[in-house]
Structure prediction request, 240 residues.
Amino acid sequence: MQESFDVTTLVFLALAVFVIWRLRSVLGQKTGREQPPADTFARKEVPDPSRPAAKPADNVVRLPTGGVERPASAVVPPQERWAGIAEPGTPIARGLDEISKIESNFDARAFAEGAKSAYEMIVTAFAQGDAKTLKGLLSRDVFEGFERAIQDREKRGEKAETTFVSVDKAEIVGVECRNRVAQVTMRFVSKLITATRDSAGAVIEGDPEAVVDVTDVWTFARTLGIRDPNWQLVATEAGQ
Prediction:
């Protein structure tokens, strides 16, 4: 039986061959190096709002200065500058003004809080005989006096016990600034439990069960305008 193709069949066959050729030229052939298709339903990392975002590296070294930076444009009226610390026109206010002329970011309230912490640290370190801690907080003369007292106590075999109950007041009572050296005198009123025991453990001074009121007047000093931000204790006396 003789097969024959009509003209219409030949036209559709030619058209099919042309379409297949175009598809190959546009889509190409598999080579084995194709990248896998992206999975649009894959789970993506979602930032955790409870986790702080990464910060860029910070190469700036910030040294504490005992103060709070204020914008250069900020102007504090004289009557408000030392509010709660000193009355305008008093020797204390004038002394604080002299400090701020050299270090404009000096903050008297921050200083008082820092002095309060130093007071507790020094009293505790002295009771524990911790000369290493004391050395960085005291001037040479004061340190030598504290060190001698610790050594004498150790030679006698005595042990001091001091527990802070509270520091009820830490106020600035005097300020001097001469030749870029500032001295700030603080008055501390605190409640302590203090006692001294001999080598046998018997109490020879104080009372380990009694809370006593203690008043101390301490003077801290520092050379202004230098990178070292540390104030040192330069004088102590018992207050009233």
